[in-house]
Every structure is written in C-alpha cells, then in structure tokens.
Amino acid sequence: MRQSSIGFLANGSAELDFMRYFLSGATLRRIAVGHREGMEAMLRAIARHQLRPVVDRVFPFGDARAAWEHFLARRHFGKVAISH
Predict the structure, then answer these.
(1) What per-residue string of b and e applies to 60-80 under the rule 16 or more CB within 10 Å gives b?
(2) CB atoms < 10 A from the CB of 59, how many?
(3) Would you say the pTM of this structure is higher than 0.90?
(4) What is the rounded CA–CA span in Å between residue 52 and residue 47?
(5) What InterPro entries does the entry give (predicted)?
(6) Alpha-helix residue ranges (DSSP H) falling in 1-84
(7) Could you read off the pLDDT of 10-39 as tens digits, one per residue?
(8) Spatial separation of the C-alpha atoms in residues 54 and 44, rounded to whole Å
C-alpha cells in the first residue's frame, strides 16, 4: 500500500494513524508544494508573458513505447507528449 499526502487542508494537521501504516509496511511519502499565493503569482506571470512549454514531439497513444524510448535516449529538447 502506498499513500501520498499532499499538504494539509485543515488546521495544519492530518488525521492519520501513523502506527497503523508503520505496522502494515506501507510506504508513506510526503509531497511538499508551495503556497497558493506563489501559484497565483506564477500563473499571472505565465499569462502576462504568454509563456508556453517547449514541445519536442507528440506521439499518438498507440506509440507510447516509442515516446518512452525517445525520452530515454535523451535526444529531445523540451517535452515529450503522448496524445489520447
């Protein structure tokens, strides 16, 4: 079993029984994210400067293996995407 906890939404604490997870052998991972104001400022900057990601290549879903091989070969510059 694996659980990822992304931030806390209420009163700065989580209602988790950590001993239960410890005894079960579960993997518990913490994922830290920034604050809301930082995200909003980033989104405003992206919109203001019309920033767009650099896309190296888009593969059809049926070619997902080729997309992964292209990515692993490190021949790309920018994002390697799979369309669906």
Answers:
(1) eeeeeeebeebeeeeeeeeeb
(2) 18
(3) no
(4) 9
(5) Zinc_ADH-like
(6) 18-24, 36-48, 64-72
(7) 565 556 777 887 788 877 777 777 888 999
(8) 19
